[in-house]
TrEMBL record:
Highest rank taxon of the organism: Bacteria
Keywords of this entry: Membrane, Transmembrane, Transmembrane helix
Stated name of the protein: Uncharacterized protein
Source species taxonomy: Bacteria, Pseudomonadati, Bacteroidota, Cytophagia, Cytophagales
Transmembrane segments: 6-28, 40-57, 77-101
Length: 109
């Protein structure tokens, strides 16, 4: 095992630690203010609903060259990837529109 492998595993560990702490610490802080938990829950539920809508409208077609090795893509995997892509596109569009609307409101004041 050379240095690159060790650093790769260290970066995996740090990414997992950062993700865990970014979830756990706000939950501990929001125990003081339960209304903050409700806002977070509404946001998470909204993301889940958006993903399931995107998942349900995405197709599950797989091109023949991706069915075999090395990809081994199944229709379920294809539909999940399509759902994630559609959700990403929708969130990007919502973000851009909110930036434009925010700037228009600031300019009108």
């Amino acid at each position: 095992m050379d240095t690159y492998d060790i650093m790769l595993y260290v970066s995996y560990g740090l990414a997992i630690l950062g993700a865990a702490l970014s979830i756990i610490l706000p939950l501990l802080k929001s125990l003081d203010d339960p209304k903050g938990l409700v806002k977070s829950a509404v946001g998470i539920i909204g993301l889940v609903v958006l993903f399931f809508i995107a998942y349900s409208i995405s197709g599950n077609e797989v091109a023949p060259k991706y069915e075999g090795a090395p990809f081994n893509l199944t229709p379920g995997m294809s539909q999940t990837i399509g759902g994630l892509l559609i959700a990403t596109y929708a969130l990007s569009l919502i973000t851009i529109l909110s930036i434009v609307v925010s700037e228009l409101f600031k300019a009108s004041k």
